[in-house]
């Protein structure tokens, strides 16, 4: 005999939903508008994580409990399900409460993706969202989706913006929007060489910012960020500037705790000048790898290294 869940009082259902596993919650949200609203109002804030991937010809939505790593469900059986307007396909992780739901199409793709995203994002609006825009996603459509999430206050954890090219206007809006809403950003988009970044008052304050093509970067605009990764075409800076930056980190005058800078103009012989005055410890060397241990004013031990044209800073875990 099946359990008549829809016949229970609303308060009882709301009490039961948080005790369901992720698959049960997701499937229950698809039953009706009423069940969707019940899920929306019953899930505790940040108890679930949602990953949304926008593709050229489709859409992927993944749901899992907070703290559970994304586990591939690609080898699991596909279960079709008809929503109001679209047929979606679902897979479920075999050993974890991981839900994978996808849709592909050839007609009115953006409109179908928009409707599905609006539905799932509203249903699971209390979840932590991770969003990825793959290359082939139209730039204007990607920004329309992002404006929707920002305007509705969805708790965004990270955005991965993988469009091959982006206009200066889009990139500026992307930077400012992520910064304003405390969202980490990773992007490998190329933008026109004439792009000049206009930072907010006080500079950017990203938890994490990763930019592949960074000729436009002025490091002084990012001193209040915790993690910075500028990999390719990083602008030319002097060893004296880098030494001053590291001393600001030592004295807790900026918030940077970790960085990776791709530096084609810095020679290995510059490393002693870059780390001058940071520590009484000797520079360690192993082949073309150089490193120096030092401590911040608060006692946190750090390690700065230079190898293969990359200057890196991280906490010293040894």
From TrEMBL:
<dbReference type="InterPro" id="IPR053222">
    <property type="entry name" value="Zygotic_Embryogenesis-Asso"/>
</dbReference>
<protein>
    <recommendedName>
        <fullName>F-box domain-containing protein</fullName>
    </recommendedName>
</protein>
<dbReference type="InterPro" id="IPR001810">
    <property type="entry name" value="F-box_dom"/>
</dbReference>
<feature type="domain" description="F-box">
    <location>
        <begin position="2"/>
        <end position="52"/>
    </location>
</feature>
